Amino acid sequence: MKAARISAGVGALLCVLGFLLWWGPDHVGYKIALLGLQTAWHASAGLAWAGVGALLMVFGALPCLAGVAIIRGLHDGRLGRAASWGAGLIAWFGLFALFEPREELGYGIGLLLTLLGAALAGPTSIYVWVRSRAARDRAVASAKAASGTLLVVESLDVHYGAVHALKGISLEVQQGEIVTLLGGNGAGKTTTLRALSGLVTPSGGRVLLEGREIATRTGALPPDQIVRLGVSHAPEGRGIFANLTVRENLDLGAYQRRDRAAIARDLEHALTLFPRLRERLRQRAGTLSGGEQQMLAIARAMLARPRLLLLDEPSLCLAPTITQVIFQIIRDINKEGTTILLVEQNAHQALKVAHKGYVLETGEIVMHDDAKVLAASDEVRKAYLGVG
After folding, report:
1. Architecture of 148-384 per CATH?
2. pTM of this structure
3. Where, residue-wise, is CATH 3.40.50.300 in the chain?
4. Deepest of 103, 292, 335, 372, by most Cβ within 10 A of its Cβ?
5. 198-252: pLDDT as tens digits
6. How far apart are CA 53 and CA 122, in angstroms?
């Protein structure tokens, strides 16, 4: 690879020298320029360098320098080599026709081919570079998917006007994990979940679900599309429809699905997990207790059949006995194969059920590790567990 790049560089320098000596005695510059093209012929960048040389001899040194800049990276891939050879061959035969026959027709054809080869070399290089970069991104995404990575958050920023709510946070969630986000009020936990589900647009960074971008600074997929991809969000405050019945709320969880038989099975499974809801199917959701409303919010999210379940403060304002029930159900849901990203102020319960955790403070991740390590950390114990 290094030798090929040196060869290409030597070819380009000879082309430049040839241009400077073009008007010398006996067309010395012309001969040196052809030598440069022949040297570039063997470079890993392919004959795109010949196109650069043709561009140089027709228009001057500045276009050559621009061409050199954009042709970097053409050494990768069959498409790059084929495109380089094609553009270079056109320029090569154009030069031959331009300077050898000297007949008017040959001169015209040579000029046309030379310009065409030079014009193809630059845009083709850009096209191939973009394609090769996209291929590398796809390969990285496939590797992560194969390794079991479900969610990747990279340098995520979120602003609410002048308020910088998230400041370049990064995290990963593997298939089958429970990952918890810990932090005080205003740390950015809820904003993180809202960014993942498409409710807010990042001002920087990106979010990938199995290698596919679902949110970037240029825009996020609509929330309904993110649900179709397998992300379901049970928001803080439950977000149930108080005037609808329990059954109607559950039906809304599956509103994008058309597999009626599977929906019926999932509904039965949800009512098995939450037997209290079975007793209240015709009851208006607004008349349920706080614990029952939380059960309804989780059950409704599960009716979308998610691969990633986002839970925001599921134990908020619940009695300790109901909290124990909710966290046992979270364990059961995870054991059945659903990956969970859990936002929870009850750090003690969250670290008991989670595999790993991230600690947020004022929009930044200040600590992350396995849940057991975090639970044993003096800083976490003092700040969130009330110990020490």
Report:
1. 3-Layer(aba) Sandwich (3.40)
2. 0.63
3. 148-384
4. 292
5. 999 999 999 999 888 999 888 888 999 999 999 999 988 878 999 999 999 999 9
6. 12
